[in-house]
Write a structure and sequence with these properties.
Layout lengths: L17 E6 L3 H12 L4 E5 L12 E2 L1 H6 L13 E2 L2 E5 L5 E5 L9 E2 L2 H15 L2 E4 L1 E8 L2 E9 L2 E12 L6 H7 L8 E10 L7 E5 L7 E9 L2 E9 H4 L6 H9 L2 H7 L5 E9 L8 E2 L2 E3 L15 H21 L4 H4 L1 H26 L3 H6 L24
Parallel strand pairs: 1-2, 1-11, 2-8, 5-13, 11-18
Antiparallel strand pairs: 3-7, 4-7, 5-6, 9-10, 10-11, 12-15, 12-16, 13-14, 14-15, 17-18
Amino acid sequence: MAKAQTNPAHRPPRRPKSDVIVVGAGPAGSTAAAMLARRGVRVLLVDRESFPRPKACGDVVPLGCFVALREIGLTEIHFPHFRIGQVALQGEEGAERRFTLAPRPGLGTCVVPRSIFDEALFHHALACGAEYRRLNIRGPILHGSQVVGVAGTGVRGAVEEYGRVVIAADGATSAMARALCGADRRDHEWAVALRAYVNTDAQLDDAIELAFLDAVQPGYAWFFPVTNHRANVGIGMRSDFYRRQPHTLAELLTGYLGRPELAARIGRNAMEEPKAWPVPLFHFDKPRVFPGALLAGDAGGFVHPITAAGIYPAIITGLCAAQATLDALAAGDLSRAGLAAYDTHWRQALADEFRPAVTASRLSTAFPHLVAAALLHVQPAGPANPSLKIDAPFAGGKF
């Protein structure tokens, strides 16, 4: 475990003001904070931003997210959203497979700008009893190898906060993960993405579109309606392949939107709010449990290796981290062994669905068009490819 240079080492820990510090108030952090606070735990939720805040994302919130959020008492959707009923998988020269998503009563896959969705989860966590402070966390405070708090900066300068457990959910560029895990990940374990918004002249239907174009393999371009006349558009590609080709993400996205059917839909409307971001793709061997600390959501690399969907696993790992923390607090064992149930919990919830995607991503290193070829032959129900067991994106309401 690497030691954060900004943090005092081997300092006797102060008496913690909080039982648990949750770093990052996105879906993973707010979910964990809400669950813990509902169980009477003293929770300090910290984030470098105030809410609402913009967040680069494709904005698709699968059905499974809303099912999981019932665990923290969030049972109804009280914010603007665009319900999705279909997924269209597209290839070159007009190839397309389209299928229908099965909703549940009152619930379904939606497109919701992250500024809206994350704010709703954040305020729910506060309503459950979590305390919030706006802090930019630089890394953990260590007592020996035990994480006993976090160090960062606030509006008045340097700040140290102490807690019995720290749940790090501070995103893809997590300062906590860098300090605890050490070296950065390799290129094939990352993707890069660019999203923008665009208004449309044409009225949009209830389908999200994923285009597996030759120029962005392994990866895809997307067109996700936010309203009947506005869409989230973007491009994502695995980092190692992106570095080998000559175009910028902006050039690739412009080329995608210049396709005749999209140009006619968009008219003369220009892209707005373009934002690029790194995507940490899931792999099994990343450490996620440390003495006194857990990594959840993007900070733990819980992003689907094929679709790059991270909202559902963020919520699930937030729940798993909260449950493991509750058990460790009750047992009085905050060591790595005391928190190890977290690995068991997330594996039970996610491993069976992540495993074939990890395999497919590895095969894509040698055969970059493999996943696109499998998905474009997907049937309305069942896996896209029986040998790889790759499910069609969002068909299961999760990824």
